[in-house]
Fold this sequence. Notes:
Helix content: 25-40%
Strand order of the largest sheet: 3-4-7-8-9-10-11-12
Oligomer: single chain
Shape: globular
Radius of gyration: 23 Å
Bound molecules: alpha-L-arabinofuranose
CATH superfamily of the largest domain: Glycosidases
Structural class: alpha/beta
Number of helices: 11
CATH architecture of the largest domain: Alpha-Beta Barrel
Largest sheet: 8 strands, parallel, barrel
Amino acid sequence: MQQARVSIDPAFVVAPVNRRLFGSFVEHMGRCVYTGIFEPGHPTADDNGFRGDVLDLVRELGVTTVRYPGGNFVSGYKWEDGVGPVEDRPTRLDPAWRTIETNAFGLNEFMEWAKKADIEPMMAMNLGTRGLQEAIDLLEYANHPQGTHLSDLRIEHGAKEPHDIRMWCLGNEMDGPWQLGHKTAEEYGRLAAETARAMRQFDKDLELVACGSSSRVMPTFGAWEATVLEHTYDVVDYISAHAYYQLHGDDHASFLASSVDMDRFIHQVVATADHVGARLQSDKKINISFDEWNVWYLEELQAGNGGLPEDWVEAPRTSEEAYTVVDAVVVGSLLITLLRHADRVTSASQAQLVNTISSIRTEPNGPAWRQSIFHPFAQMAKHARGQVLDLRLDAPTLSTERYGDVPLLDSVATYDAEEGQVAVFVVNRDPSQPVQLSTSLRSFDGAELVDALQIADEDYTAANTQDAPDRVVPRAFEAAQVTDGVLTAELAPASWTMFLIKVG
Ligand code: AHR
């Protein structure tokens, strides 16, 4: 059997676990909002029309921040359409997803929902069809306490307290030709810089995200980040990154190694940002907001009408993936990679939360359930506490078609000194072979295994459905032990495993 060795030491600190890495995303896309988080008349809906069953699952998932309202949607969105008396709100066409938008749900509903879900909002603004004036209007409407036209309008609309939104995305995927108002890096860089500068005149402490590349395979990747940051370096805090992965044909090895691509993506964006910092002779560091990531069967979506419905409809069933066991393992591995880079990736949003490319699925007037990918996220959001530790890994490699030879294991650990707990998260990327893991915890006193959970299945394609919502869940993992400060375990092929270890 293949053997892998890992050493964990409390001295190998990467950074504190940043709770904002466990963010998600709600876009006006498909049924994420309508019949997802918002369904007046649903048996569990509250007075605001928020589904109670979904709110319970959002809390259980452990989501900390939610990006809103898009995505591609935001690049044609007029935020004013979504505020004020519902009966006065206009119905519009949304060309991004070719849908009819009723605007029954907008900014104030989202902020009310955010309070109930106990999440921090991350607001995206339209720099596609709109610009600086609309951005500062939105900021004044949302955040100014009272006594001006727009802040008083918010109060008139029922939101007495200012929303005090701290994180703002300056547009969405402006490098993509599919984006409404797509721009060159020069054009976008200038607009983002002037918008950021103006926003800081209102509130210098806002946290602002400039658009990076919408994927690492964009022809402008690297050059885009460099140009945009040359314009915006002093006035933004983050550059964004987006990445979606999928199984191509039967190439499970490459799919299970998707986080290798995410890892290279992060390294390259950090290198580019630091290069710009050096050229500008700046000591400031720009961090990454990985504000869209997930498994998404995009090729299948695009095989239809470019992913769009033929007719203009309200809340269609777009990208309602039924995630499998292997998808959950890949999601676990992507989260491991984000955590491993906690020193420079300081915000992240899994795309998306409900129904569309989602952790949570619902049926209109019916139940809500956890998809397979819900589980690694929920476990890691709950148990990754304290400091992220960099592991020393000595593992064989796996040969993959897309990424070459990659380490067989993907892993990270966190150490909560106050609670005296180490959490170790490991993915075995090998689609067909188990691996014998030996982890040295000798730098800790009295290591004792408290719990071990695994996601693995002989049937990789198993998924949770309305009728079998718990087909794929993490199961107690018995084949592990800690003896004399060494954790040993046989990890199943294509598996995600979490070990919780009590230390002195
Ligand atoms: O999350 C789905 C879509 O993916 C978003 O709208 C867009 O930003 C990205 O291309």
